[in-house]
Amino acid sequence: MVIAFLPGLLTGLSLIIAIGAQNAFVIRQGLAKSNVLLVVVICAASDALLIFLGTGGLGAVIQSQPRALEIIRWFGVAYLTFFGLNTLRKVFRPGALSIEGETSISRKAAIASVLGFTFLNPHVYLDTVILLGSISNQFHSDRWYFALGAAIGSILWFSALGFGARAASRFMTKLIFWKVLDYIIANVMFAVAIFLIFYDFKA
Predict the structure, then answer these.
(1) How many angstroms separate the Cα of 189 from the Cα of each of 27, 28, 77, 81, 186?
(2) pLDDT tens per residue across span 61-104
């Protein structure tokens, strides 16, 4: 059990620590103190779902349907580009703005955004479903302990990211900070979109 659980925990953490679109969004919501628990729960639950599906054999199904990843790829590119442009528009919006109005989004928008960053990124399927799924099956009867470890890694990471950012938000009171943050996040979205365009999923 432990032999499978610990590698799952460490492997899961190693795959999600890189700052991508999903992590950038969690950080922003934490700093904005906006729907933090909701966003963290959705991210962790989505990762856990994909990890367990991969352990159950979904990875083999996805690999046999490469067109599915291509469809997700272009939806993801369009979604990330739209979100990046919308975020960039806020950076250059003229006029006096309150920090609250600049940083908060509705619950519905938060749910739609985090689901989009999770399920419209084909790289998420490669990491959680295919890669973690294939590694977990090397542990045979203990593969579900590996999957549990990886899922707990996601819970720990997203909780630390979201609530850690919320704890640090009291130092981020100037509007210029939020404009700089949104500028960085917009460029993260564009970078991930470009990455998806050129990434070879068959490699």
Answers:
(1) 14, 13, 9, 7, 5
(2) 777 777 887 888 898 899 999 988 988 887 787 654 444 555 56
